[in-house]
Amino acid sequence: MRYALARSAAPAAMRREMQDQLNNLAQEMSPLDAGFRRRLAIVFNAWREAAATVLREGQTHGSVCRDVEPADAPVSLIAIVEGYASLAKNAQYPKVMKAGIRNVVGWRRSPRAPGNRKRG
Fold it and tell me: Is 51 exposed, middle or buried (0-12, 13-18, 19+ CB in 10 A)?
């Protein structure tokens, strides 16, 4: 499953930097400013909606299982991505992020309909 940030035309390194900044803002600034927290929630909601749209499209085309709930599944993906970003930042150890990427790819494959479990 692709999410909004991954679908952008920005180079991969720039997307990673944007993801790091989003994670930093969410964790460090949200508790300090309610208005900022509300504005950041708009960003996360847009991310969830973009992922939900991709899942719905996949269900329409038969590549995503019908039992996947498009409105709920993106919350898990975002939590996984944000969690690994935080763990990798703290560990300062590349293997942490590599493990995270493997798990995100595994999660990405899990909602696929039978017969659509090809690599990638």
Answer: buried
Q: Rounded to an integer, what distance in angstroms lies between the CA atom of residue 51 and that of residue 71?
A: 9
Of 64 and 106, the one with more pLDDT: 64
Both tokens of residue 64? 């995503």
Query: Residue 118 has which token pair?
Result: 């090809």
What does the pLDDT look like over 63-104, one tens digit per residue?
A: 888 888 999 988 888 888 888 888 888 888 778 888 888 887
Cβ-proximal residues to 42 (8 Å cutoff; 6+ apart), any chain: none
Parse the chain into domains and list their residue ranges: 11-109
How far is residue 109 from each of residues 34, 64, 112, 113, measured CA to CA in Å?
Answer: 36, 9, 6, 9
**What number of other Cβ atoms are within 10 A of residue 93's Cβ?**
11
Residue 19 to residue 113: CA distance in whole angstroms: 29
